[in-house]
Amino acid sequence: MKTKDKVLATALELFNKEGLKDVTLRQIAKTMNISQGNLNYHYRAKSDIVSALYFQLVDRMNIEMSQLVQNQPIMSFLSESSLISMRVLFEYRFITKDLYAVLDSDEELKQHYVGLQKMRKQQFLMLFENMIEGGLLRPEELNNEYERLYERMNILGDNWINAAALLRDNSKSIVDYYHSLLFEVIYPYLTERGKEEFRNLF
User: CA gyration radius for the chain?
Assistant: First the structure.
């Protein structure tokens, strides 16, 4: 592994364990048994490392999602894609824990994240529409009901790691617990057929 990649791997481990604000470049270099000058040759500031890890996360998510079977049943696809997302986010959990601080400190990351959220919202609304057409999801009863459902799911998706750290633990099984918690949000909106498919998945 190249030094540049080792820096990212070490920083990720330290950020996840100790938190973003408490880890210094000196600490990363010491953990790697290299000089801080050597580290600074690859990354001049901690923000550069954070940015590199953020885009590494995005790339990892894209790779994982591209491997999903696209023509599987919608309910199965929704469950599997959300579980994959949560597993990857858990591996880079320091970003989610300090999401707003990370975004506020880097305008490029903030704009990229906002763009991703807009795209993701459109994908989910299209998915909901397909579920309605497929008889899995009931039609809207309130104006913009499913847009608001997505927003609730997104808020939970952005904050479950902080809740896990405070209320439970950091074991990998926590991902499965919060995946169920998040996925169950859609259950009251399902038709009887949709509920049957939901129950069969779990």
Answer: 19
